[in-house]
Write a structure and sequence with these properties.
The chain has 68 residues and is mainly α. The chain has two helices and two strands, in the order H-E-E-H. The structure holds zinc ion.
């Protein structure tokens, strides 16, 4: 029984590539080369998509504690 999932395919592609990396960013679709590629203090890839993701999270958290 073949299990076919798009995410698995992406991971397989990354695993088969010779691109060096410690992880895979699902936001931009690129491999993460090293820990320096993460946004400091997070486990999010430091790419435009990743930064937008972190900004979204930060604004959501900030909204909860903001003065009404
Ligand atoms: Zn990324």
């Amino acid at each position: 029984m073949p299990l076919e999932m798009p995410d698995e395919e992406m991971l397989q592609k990354w695993a088969e590539s010779t691109e060096p990396g410690i992880g895979f960013c699902f936001l931009c679709g690129h491999s993460i080369a090293s820990e320096e590629d993460f946004i400091p203090g997070t486990s999010t890839h430091n790419c435009p998509e990743g930064r937008a993701f972190e900004t979204m999270i930060a604004s959501e958290l900030g909204g909860q504690s903001a003065d009404e």
